[in-house]
Amino acid sequence: MKTSRWWQQCSVISFLLAVWLPAWIMAQTTPPTQGTTSPKPQNDRLQFRLVGYPRKHNEGRIEVFYKGEWGTICDDDFSLSNANVLCRQLGFVSATGWTHSAKYGKGLGKIWLDNVQCNGGEKSIELCKSRGWGNSDCTHDEDAGVVCKDERLPGFVDSNIIDVRYQLYCHVEKVRLRPVVPTKKMPITEGVVEIKYRNGWVQICDVGWTSKNTRVICGMLGFPDEKKVNKNFYKLNIERQKNQYHLHSVACVGTEVHLAACPLEFNKGNATGSCKGGMPVVVSCVPGPQYVHNNGLKKKLKTTSMVRLKGGAKLGEGRVEVLRNNEWGTVCDDRWTLLSASVVCRELGFGSAKEALTGARMGQGMGPIHMNEVLCLGTEKSMWNCGFKNITSEDCQHVEDAAVRCNTPYMALENSETWYWDSSNVTEMVMSGVKCTGNEMSLSHCQHHRTVSCQKTAAKFSAGVICSETASDLVLNAPLVQQSVYIEDRPLHMLYCAAEENCLSKSAASANWPYGHRRLLRFSSQIHNIGRADFRPKAGRHSWVWHACHGHYHSMDIFTHYDLLSSNGTKVAEGHKASFCLEDTECHEGISKRYECANFGEQGITVGCWDLYRHDIDCQWIDITDIKPGNYILQIVINPNFEVAESDFTNNAMKCNCKYDGHRIWLHNCHMGDAFSEEAERRFEKYPGQFNNQIS
């Protein structure tokens, strides 16, 4: 079958992309080559990225991929017009500024452009005036950077995902599996592969079809693996149907994240081709444990995986974290690619990666950074089988944490699943007693009453939700708690306000006021918002409660719980903290404070900022007057009643080993609740006492 000129070009483009992707990976790890000749710019597809440190995802040193090599742009004659052109090519609507003198660090290799002069309306930087490709008298001390407005162009894929744009080529955008036998069971894992074409769906001829092609299809559809299919079962059914073959000669290598990246051929024009000696492609995919109704498999994945995703709003997306030496840590985004991201996604039971996100797009982690410059081929079973560099404190910071968005199976859960509407017309309740862990894919998977307990109740009791793509994520600075802890014997005459706010143990009520004292375990709390939205109190200022004794408003009655636990988990002493002042005490570089309590100001914690409750303020303690010497666990829980939405509640608790000898106190192994492996956490719970500094 002959192909039209356009489809021939499409096939060539797909082939070049399949070849270019591995070449691009190699270009990331090999020294620059010298002395090669340059094709004309308009025949070479340019790619762009933002890199350097410190920076956010929408700013950085601008680098251009040209002639198989990454290079920089000199800041001579650079202007905001230049930055506008470059930001649009990166997928942002415009630029808000530009930088000179290698503000984001010096690049390596070529300086591709110098004396660039744009008027601002050009579609590409190659259309602007310059000295020509590779012609420069600059050094990397003059590397230019751009600051883009953090607003995406409609339909543009994420910035720095330079090897995903081939999805726009060849009109292979939607792919589905059509089961021969209709089923309501989700997800659909086996069936005829069909491609959306115009207003209908067409098939692929299976002549020459390989398991590598199947792997790419399954990855696109959200499945980590593939398996052999019984074609004889399908032949009889398929022969009775009218098939439209529009695609053939697919030749994937198996690591592509999209069918459009594979060499392939389309039939000429609108013609329906034949499939001599073949039939429509049928594939069978293996779903990940999350999509199998088998709790044993789900538990196995949770306990054995050394990779996890944190901070994402949806299943299959989040900041990449890896387990090393029994402690979870993040991955630096240097040279972070779709191939590496796909290995992570498949390892976790999803399909290939849709996006490999850089610049802490899923929030900044806390604790160690375990990996840098991860280099996967795409065939590895685990990220730990890929090449990578060990991290040093100079290499990366958490503003460079890598993240992923994975392809996930279609579950048909979007139709009439949950509604939020005026409840005045509610006539019937269909569920009650709903209790979810947060990981379920449907409300029907959560615990709930077998019989609805409020079937005829008033409409005001109907539940509603407001959904958001982003949320805050609060974590406690565990090392600061460990460093700041001490004991104070505080006179009762200084504790009247604290007693009024129930910050003392029950035995304080029978004390001989104002004589005597209470023994207080004091420490500082530094609470970071590492999420993707500001943390705001649930209640507005109009409903805050004034406390005259301390002279301040409470925006949340219970913001933090402080507990001292025995070795068997029994609570032996407790404290709590109301949020009398949620504000931005300090922020990371480049982030402005938004919230300040003075003059009845707005309260909250901005993304990238933290609030500090110092050890010397009232109620920042646990009353341990009645506690005997021994080994304990100190536990601090932020937002304990889940009053404010967060993307992750598993990191809201912090625990420490605690040793009290009746006069002094020591904390050891302070960590967030999700920072250790399950094995390390079990050891922690088994022996809560002091490991070093043995005290008799």
From TrEMBL:
Name the cystine pairs.
74-138, 87-148, 118-128, 252-262, 332-396, 345-406, 376-386, 436-446
Ranges that cross the membrane: none
Q: Which cofactor does it need?
A: Cu cation
Q: Which GO terms describe its cellular component?
A: extracellular space; membrane
Q: Which reaction does it catalyse?
A: L-lysyl-[protein] + O2 + H2O = (S)-2-amino-6-oxohexanoyl-[protein] + H2O2 + NH4(+)
The protein's UniProt keywords, in alphabetical order, are:
Copper, Disulfide bond, LTQ, Metal-binding, Oxidoreductase, Secreted, Signal, TPQ
Its BP terms in the Gene Ontology are: collagen fibril organization
> Where does this polypeptide localize?
Secreted, Extracellular space
- Known Pfam families for this protein? Lysyl_oxidase, SRCR
Protein name according to UniProt? Lysyl oxidase homolog
Q: Which organism is it from?
A: Oncorhynchus kisutch
